[in-house]
Structures are given as C-alpha cells and as structure tokens.
Amino acid sequence: MSKMFFAATTTALTMSVASASFAGNLSEPIIAPSPAAMAAPVYSTGTDWTGFYVGGSLGYAEGSEDDSTVFEDDGATYGIHAGYDYDFGNFVLGAELELSGFDVSDGGNDIDSVSRAKLRAGYDAGAFLPYLTVGVASLDIGGGLDANDTGSFYGVGMDYMLNDRIRLGGEVLQHEFGNFDNTGLDFEATTASVRVAFQF
C-alpha cells in the first residue's frame, strides 16, 4: 500500500509542476519584431535639374586660322542661352541654343558671333552638375573675309544650383571649322565663359 501511496504522490507532484510551468508560459508577453529589423526608408539627396532655363554669359575667346597667316587673336565674349534639362536620377540629359557675340579682331577680319545648338549629358551630384557637351556651331566673320560657315564644337562644363531658381556655371568649348566657306582655310576657336541662368 505504501508503494501505491508513493506512486500516487509522485504522479500528483509531477502534474502540479507541469501545470505551473504551462501556466507560466501562457502568462509571458508576446514580443513584437524589432523596428530595426524593418527596412529603413531611402531618401534622395539629389537636386532635380528638370526644367527650362534662360540666361547669359561673359567670357574669353582665342581664335586662329590653321597657319595663323590670315587670323589669330583673342578677346571678350558675351551671350545669351536657353535650354531644357531632364533629370533621370543620376543622369541628366539636355539641349540648349546659344548665341555669343565676340570682340575679337585681327586687322581687317573680325569674329562677329558664334551660334550653337548643343546636346548636354551630365551627372547629378546634388547641387552640382558636371557635364559634357557637343554640337553644331555657326561662325560669322566680318571685315575683309566677310563669310559664314558651320562647324562643330565639344567641351565640358559645370553648373551649380544656387537655389531652386538660379544656376551658376562655367564652360570651356573647342570649335573647329574646316574649309571655312570654301576658302580652303581651317578656323578654330577656344572659349571659356561664366554663366548665370534662371530656371523655371
């Protein structure tokens, strides 16, 4: 009988401990997943360069003919430009029209003006936009030569977004005009300018 009493007591104690453990597990709070485990939102820090802009420029030009016997001189430039850029995220693509007057004269020949149709491709570096540009240029020479012809140009530039409306920038271009107006002369010109534009 003592064996039966001992077995019954042992069984009762075991069930009591198991019940207490089970009850304790039910009372433990449910812990939600940590917010740190969730992906943090990503915010863009780039500037949106999309939009139309118009502006002006001042600069310096150096022009010459291939053997420098007909023309070689330098002087000031001034101009106006208008264009449109589209910001794809990190990449910016745009087009621009520009007209520049020249104060460059060598004896009887003067570089009067250069007009340009540009394509621009740049990198959105926040408030800065470094870019490459290429396009078609029309050179007008007055004085004794009095001729006009079309050539090409290429160059580099940098724009800075001062605020959401004002752009500041700089640009260096190399122009090439082969067999200018069927004269057999090859002209080239290098320009460097500072620019300001209003974006809207």
What does this entry show, briefly?
This is Outer membrane protein beta-barrel domain-containing protein. The chain has one helix spanning 2-27, and strands spanning 51-65, 72-87, 91-106, 109-123, 128-143, 147-161, 166-177, 187-199.
What does this molecule look like?
- The protein is mainly beta and 200 residues long.
- The chain has two domains: 2-37; 51-199, Porin (Beta Barrel).
- Helix content is 13%, strand content 59%.
- It contains one helix and eight strands.
- Strands 1-2-3-4-5-6-7-8 form an eight-stranded antiparallel beta barrel.
- A hairpin with a 3-residue loop joins strand 2 (72-87) and strand 3 (91-106).
- It is elongated and about 50 Å long.
- Residues 1-26 and 40-45 have low confidence and may be disordered.
Radius of gyration: 37 Å
Question: Which word captures the global form?
Answer: elongated
Number of strands: 8
The CATH architecture name of the largest domain reads: Beta Barrel
Instruction: Name the helicity range.
Output: 10-25%
Subcellular location: Membrane
Protein name: Outer membrane protein beta-barrel domain-containing protein
Domain Outer membrane protein beta-barrel: 36-200
Signal peptide: 1-23
